[in-house]
Amino acid sequence: MGKILIKNIKGLVQFGENLPKVRKGVEMKELPVLENAFLALEDGVIVAYGAMEDWGGITDWRDLEVIDAEGKFVLPAFCDSHTHTVFAQSREEEFVDRINGLSYEEIAIRGGGILNSARKLQEMSETDLFNHAMERIERLQSYGTGAIEIKSGYGLTVEAELKMLRVIKRIKSESSIAIKATFLGAHAFPPAFKENHAGYIDQIVNEMLPQIEKEGLADYIDVFCERNYFSVDEMATILEAGIKHGLQPKVHVNQFSTIGGVRKAVELNALSVDHMEEISDDDIDALKGSTTIATILPSCSHFLSIPFGDARKLMENDLPVALASDFNPGSTPSGNLMFVWSLACVKMKMTPEEALNALTLNAAYAMDLSDTHGTISLGKKTPIILTKQLPSIAYIPYSFGDQHIDRLIIA
Ligand code: NIG
Ligand code: FE
C-alpha cells in the first residue's frame, strides 16, 4: 500500500491517544474533531496526524500518495459487530407476507424464517456461499464498514454449521478487512428436533463444538434466547459448553421479550448482549458494573416494525451502547451502517455524536478490536473513511439514504 498523506481534512473525527475502551453514559456525547487536519498512513498504519499548520512536512516523497481532502471528513471505519452475512438467498416473499398481515413470529412458526434460510443453505456449495458473501462484503465496505462479525446459524445440522463456519474462515483469510466468526448453532431448533430439544443441544455440545475448536472455526458463541427459540436454561447449557471450548458468549436476547437472558449472559461474561428491543429494569441492573456491552440493531426494528431499543435509558444509567446492522435475509436485508446511524438519531434520539461512538469506538469493543479499530490513533491499522464534501458530520445521519462515502482506505 505504501505511504498516504491526506491533507486539508475539514474534520478529523474520533482521533486521539489513550482513549477509553468504551464511552458510556454522558461520555458518549464526546466526539473529538480536529479541524483543518492532516493524516499520514504507512502500509495502512496511522503514523501521524495533526493540524495542517503543525505539519512538519514530508522529507521522503518516494511512493507517497497525496490525497487532498478539502471539504471532506476523515473518520475511522465503522465496525459491524453483529451480522449474518453468509446466507444462500434473500427472503422477499416473507416481506410480502408480512405486508399482507403475518408477523415475523407467525412466519417462523409455519417453517419460514430461519428454517427457510437453513433449507437453502444446506443445498448450496461452500464456493457459492463464499462468493455471494464476498460480494456483500464489498458492498458493505462501500458504505464505510471496515470490520465485520459474521455468524453461522443457517446450517442447523452438524455438517451445514461446519460448512458455514469454514466459509467464514475462508472469508477471514481472503478479505481485506478484519472478520470475526461466531458460532450460532443455537439459532433455531431444526424441525427434526422440535420435540427433542435435548437431542439438538447434544449435537451442538458433543459434535459441533469439539470440531469447531479443532479447526479453529469460531471466536464467539451465540444463542438466540427467546420464546419459541432457546430458553435461558438451554442458552446457559450451550454457552457453558462453548466457554469450555474457548469461545466467549455474544448473544441474541430481548428481541421480542425479556425472559432473563441478559442477566444470565452477563453472569457468563458475555462480550455483548444484542438486539435489546425490550429492556427490563433487571437487565439494566445486571449490566451495571459488568464488562458486557448492549448492542442495538435499529435496522431490524425498522424492517420488522418492532420497538427500537431504548438507548437513552441505557445511557441514563451510565451504560455504554454499541450499534450494529444485524445484516441478514430475514429481519434486516440492509447492512448499511450510515442508515443505522440515521435510525439511531431519528428513532432512538441518539445525538449524531453518541451514535458515531456506538458505531466506532464502542462497536470495536463489541468485537474485541479496540487495539486496532474504532479510533484514529497512532499505530492503529484501522480502515479509514474519507467522506464526500459535506457541510458537517451531522449531515450524514440527517441526509439519510444517500451515499456520503468517497472511499474506504484499507491497508
Ligand atoms: O438477528 N433473531 C434472530 N436472528 C436474526 C434473524 C434471522 C432470520 O430471520 O433469518 C436476527 O434478527
Ligand atoms: Fe442477529
List the helices and strands and how they pair.
Layout: E1 3-13, E2 33-42, E3 45-51, E4 64-68, E5 72-76, E6 78-80, H1 92-99, H2 104-109, H3 114-123, H4 126-142, E7 145-151, H5 158-174, E8 178-186, H6 197-215, E9 220-225, H7 232-244, E10 248-253, H8 261-267, E11 272-275, H9 281-287, E12 293-296, H10 298-304, H11 311-316, E13 321-323, H12 337-348, H13 352-359, H14 361-365, E14 384-389, H15 395-398, E15 405-409
Parallel strand pairs: 1-4, 1-5, 6-7, 7-8, 8-9, 9-10, 10-11, 11-12, 12-13
Antiparallel strand pairs: 1-2, 2-3, 5-14, 14-15
Helix pairs in contact: 4-5, 5-6, 6-7, 8-9, 12-13
The structure holds N-(iminomethyl)-L-glutamic acid and fe (iii) ion.
What does this 3D model show about the protein?
It is built from 15 helices and 15 strands. Strand 7, helix 5 (158-174) and strand 8 form a beta-alpha-beta unit. With 411 residues, the protein is of the alpha/beta class. The protein starts with a strand and ends with a strand. The chain is globular. The strands form two sheets. Strands 6-7-8-9-10-11-12-13 form an eight-stranded parallel sheet. It has two domains: 3-77 and 374-409, Urease, subunit C, domain 1 (Roll), CATH 2.30.40.10; 78-365, Alpha-Beta Barrel (TIM Barrel), CATH 3.20.20. The chain binds N-(iminomethyl)-L-glutamic acid (NIG) and fe (iii) ion.
